[in-house]
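>> received
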Amino acid sequence: MTDREPMIEAIDLCKYYGSFAAIDHLTFTIRRGEVVAFLGPNGAGKSTTMKVLTGYLSPTSGAARLAGLDVVRDRVRAVEKLGYLPENGPLYPEMTPHALLTFFGEARGLGGARIAERIDFVTQECDLSELLHKPIGTCSKGQKQRVGMAQALLHDPEVLLLDDPTTGLDPNQIRHVRELVKKLGETRTILLSTHLFQEVEAMAGRVLLVNEGKLAFDGTPADFKAKGGGQMDKAFHSLTTHA
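>> returned
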């Protein structure tokens, strides 16, 4: 794995709000072909880190890079490499998934046969056929999640940041998303924020855990479980609470 190029980098990353450190000297590297679970309690700095990596927030100090591109100094080129599924994505309720994907595709510079090809691909992979011409506002939470996943994948990005991608999905859809993430992770780089330990074991080959803005763990799911005597919930508890 070490010969693969770094695709997501946090380098001594800090984000302050006044005197409060939401991210406190956070450093990690994720390479091509890794699917990494991003864990942490509420308020630990996970969401802030994801927003800095997307370029939505600027760090107070340090650097964030996607595919070697600084997300502050070279944001436009950096986010061309990125597909992002936020926890509550900005889906326009009056639009249909097809209209939304066309809009995002054109905004990404796709056109002609290429945009049609990519819409067909994400429609199949995200199981949108029956929803394609239905107003998004009438869709269920799980259906909206699938539309959000489709827009994240639309431009065939090299890096994916996924925030709770299985939220609201039924068991069959969860299984499909797991298989899709594992397949995509063979050639892409995926940072997967989740609160569900079963998703960690099903999809990730590595775990990053943040607590109080700092990196508290970096290792395999098996090593993480070992911290809790073979149980992920106990490991999480021991690494995120003070004795």
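>> Residues 216 and 239 are 7 Å apart (CA to CA).
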